[in-house]
Amino acid sequence: MTHKKVIIIGGGVIGLGIGWQLAKAGAAVTIYDQSEVGRAASWAAAGMLAPLAEAHSEEPELLKLGCQSLERYSQWVTDLEADTQMSVGYRVEGTLIVGLEPDDTHQLRHLYDAQRNLQLDVNWLTGREARDIESALSPRVTAAIHCASDYQVDNRLMVTALQRAYQQHGGVVRGNSVVERVVIEDGIAIGVQTRDGFQNADTVILSAGCWSAEMAGIPEAIIPPVRPVKGQMLALQMEEGIVINSVIRTVRARYPTSVYLVPRTDGRLIVGATSEEMGFDTRLTVGGVFELLRGAWEAVPGVYELPILETWAGLRPGSRDNAPILGKTTVENLIYATGHYRNGILLTPITAYEIAKLVLTGETSEIILPFQLDRFLK
Ligand code: GLY
Predict the structure, then answer these.
(1) Class of 95-148+228-319 per CATH?
(2) Exposure winner among 146, 197, 272, 311, fewest CB in 10 A?
(3) Which residue's alpha carbon is nearest to atom 3 within ligand 1?
């Protein structure tokens, strides 16, 4: 058991996940969030656990990290559900990446070859074979890649479960509570300044997503290079005859937006997402919603009939190289766990386990070594 006092700035799945692990180990943890915990990127996400579908051959370290986190997901979910007695909607039906016309098929083939070069477990399907798995797919689907081990979790249920598990182990949540600055003395983080005064800590963890670069008190040289990347999203209600079970992603060579459709156990069908550099603007636009609806309708024509339940836009915390920023900084006792960009839900277990281990032992594991802030400082 540890008696460390830890302050976490940012109560998304990353902050809550680390907090849960540390509170379980006996640490006295307080999470500060500028609004309600878990209601930013963690709430806006689609919950895809898709290192294969989102794999880029030029990002091999990130792919490896994603695969390692996915390997730990089943245990993570088992522990979280046991701690909270609630389901987090973990589903293992896999992902189909589909193309709709010859240009798309070429792009799909290029992606498939890259995935095979990375020795990923993917299969090439004809349009008919794809429709055998998901009958609601359009007859226009020309080909598909089946990523059988790309799963999903219901990220909103996971937020609720993580908050419950964290608090059950004694973790403290300070929602709607702004940290005014990190307090650093002689190169050592000693706590944070809040509206209620100074709060001391043995370790301060910054997991404030796309707001991480705005955090006052951090020396300019080590401000994490993280910015918001907007994603517009929709939720539809699946109805009889228009039900899908796999995650479906489109490849669209001629259009600006590829879409994904993520079926939830409760019948919601999440459709996302645009990718826009618009600062902290979270307004929905006609163009954004139009592209999502067009993409969804082209892949699964039956969505035309479905009711729209919800629309929203979230802000992904994008780092300069798309990979998260994890681990120690040049300020002693100040640790970063931010910049998870498109993979925050996928990378939650590995981030939580490895950052908690770092706090408890002082040792940086081989797994997170390539993701330290110092890669940007060289
Ligand atoms: N990972 C899905 C997205 O960022 O839209």
Answers:
(1) alpha beta
(2) 197
(3) 342
